[in-house]
Amino acid sequence: MKTVGIIGGSGYIGSHITKKFLSQGYRVRVGTTDLTKSEKYQHLQSLPHAEHLEMVQMDVQKKDELNAFLDGCDLVVHGGTPFQLDVEDAQRDLFDPTINGTVNFLEAIQGVSTIEKVVIIASVAAYNTDFPMLPPGKGPNDQVSEKDAPYMSKESHPYAQAKFIANSTVSKFITDNPKLGFDVISVSPVGVMGPALSQRADSTSMGVQYLIKNWIAPNPFIQMIYDNDVEWSVVDVVDVVEAIFTAATTKIIHGRNYLLASESYHVSDIHKILNGKDPVNAPRVVYDSGLAQKELGMTFRPARKTLENYAAMTSVGAAV
Asked: Which of 289, 293, 287, 290 is CA-nearest to residue 246?
């Protein structure tokens, strides 16, 4: 039985990853920043095969905790960076934990002899920090792909900037260390949607779906998206997990960063679908996930199906 360490394994995406590896016969070690806050991870303890689950207190900004967490891991999935739209202090809340945490992580994995594969959950921001808007130079009929030069603007949301810099740090690490004893793969999902495994109220990914469903704009960023009826590229959380599991468990090309995306809908149409109505406009493939389809064997669920699944889940919750 191999051990996989999942940093961020109790969050929205991370919980699905934890469930997947447990179901496939792995021993799973999940890092959480505060073991006393059991409400953030207790949903994992009721998963099938949870007897093979280990919860460990670990903060990526604390090197001793990180080193202890990684000790003995065969596979590592790093998805433990904060995702916040409203922040009081961008440096403290986003830049430091995302960038410093990535630097610490890359340093730590070099000292673990058992590691065979590392998968880093990046973000579409690694390619375009203006997401969900298109980067400059792209028109309404254009696509974004891994072949495009990555775009970053200091006017973009701090979360996107932090993820872009962290991904650049990973790319430089791979270039500077050509003889690593393990593979490093990144995945960059677009807007991840679909049901959650927990009832946590602090999930930004679930929050975005709730905001669009109810047409709530708690900040200027979301209001701007509504005002411009932006095309929002969607990917199902289950498909993201499948891509991560495949990247972690098969021999694929070291150094890849796979865009993970299904289709895009105008945000007004996403609102309609989340409320059980038909969209006005047809979906469009804005972010090209051809490399993931070719090398990971991915077939992405239609965006409408993902949105309808979330709508059905929330309807059941409301009825209860």
From this structure: 293
